[in-house]
């Protein structure tokens, strides 16, 4: 590369170029490379450090709540209550099946949604399943009652599983009915409550139970942080818990409303939002919940995508991309095509000498690396003719002695 600047101010140029290279080296993301590391296997559709694996989607983080000011939700949160009367319309009375729901009688006061005792449970009009739920609540400042009678409400996930809301700041009760218990199932790991009147923050991860033909595939789990303290650690649901009776585990709806309990106390809520989580029954590869069959299907899907991509390329790039698809799916027709293209590639390489061959050296090395990798992981036979021929040619040129 030449530059007029280089002639005029060589020192500055050198410094600038060095700085640029240094910056580039730091800033460039490591995307891994194909034909590197362990391949996909029967439960992993992706290779180790797989550069074909999609990048995580961008979410702008929110802010944390202070004792007085609610935090800001992350950018992809679905808002259920933001402190305004406008979001009250997202809620309705928890009418029995077959009965038309009415607008909720709970009220919005000072930026909070307050339970009006004896007006009944409320629920969201929207229904959702697996989620990250954020909800803040405050028991009345004026302490009244004890045990289950003090600042009682509840957060019902999918309308069924209650994460208890109760003023237990200085108020013992039965442990499996404590604030942040999965009610009737599991006490919280700790009492991390603030004093009554102050807002408590629940961050909940809900995974519904999954059944297939009456057989449990996944019991469902709830994880809860109370004021930033872990209080439910991936607690299995056992059907969800209940009052006085254990809930029988069984088929569970995919979606349901979020319900809030009227237990006769004017508990206040604010800053309610959720983020849907990826389902576990599909083959998106996002959470390791893949059967061998689902993994095979996902690998076939990835391979098809790479083959489609290869069809848009030409020359060596097309051959290497096609070879890459074999990492995911051992397709005989593709393997034969790669073998034929590689055979032609080696033959054409052998016609080159001098600078023309030197110019192709790095590319030839990458082709050899691909063929060796595919043979190592049995995507091509160990005796693959182009692999053997290219390895011999590389050795004859002394390329195998060079630093990588
Ligand atoms: Mg309750």
The helix content is 25-40%
Quote the distance from N terminus to C terminus. Answer: 24 Å
Main β sheet profile: 8 strands, antiparallel
Q: What proportion of the residues form beta strands (DSSP E)?
A: 15-25%
Ligands present:
magnesium ion
Radius of gyration: 30 Å
Q: Classify the secondary structure makeup into a structural class.
A: alpha+beta
Please tell me what the overall shape is: elongated
CATH homologous superfamily of the largest domain?
A: Exo-inulinase, domain 1
**Count of separate DSSP helical elements:** 7
Q: What's the CATH C level of the largest domain?
A: Mainly Beta
In the predicted model, the low-confidence regions spanning at least 5 consecutive residues are 1-31, 282-286
Total domain modules: 2
Give the SSE order as H and E letters: HHEEEEEEEEEEEEEEEHHHHH
Q: Mean pLDDT, as a whole number?
A: 88
CATH topology grouping of the largest domain: Jelly Rolls
CATH architecture of the largest domain: Sandwich
E-strand count: 15
What does this structure look like?
This protein is α+β, with helices and mostly antiparallel strands and 404 residues long. The chain has two domains: 4-55 and 288-401, no CATH class; 78-284, Exo-inulinase, domain 1 (Jelly Rolls), CATH 2.60.120.560. Helix content is 27%, strand content 20%. The chain contains seven helices and 15 strands. Strands 1, 3, 4, 6, 9, 12, 13 and 15 form an eight-stranded antiparallel beta sheet that branches. The chain has a five-stranded antiparallel beta sheet with strand order 2-5-14-7-8, with no helix packed on it. A two-stranded antiparallel ribbon has the order 10-11. Strand 10 and strand 11 (215-218) form a beta hairpin. Helix 4 runs antiparallel to helix 5 (332-349), helix 4 (315-328) packs parallel to helix 6 and helix 6 (354-376) packs across helix 7 (385-397). It starts with a helix and ends in a 7-residue tail after the last helix. The structure holds magnesium ion. Magnesium ion (MG) binds at residues 152-154, 162, 164-165, 261, 263.
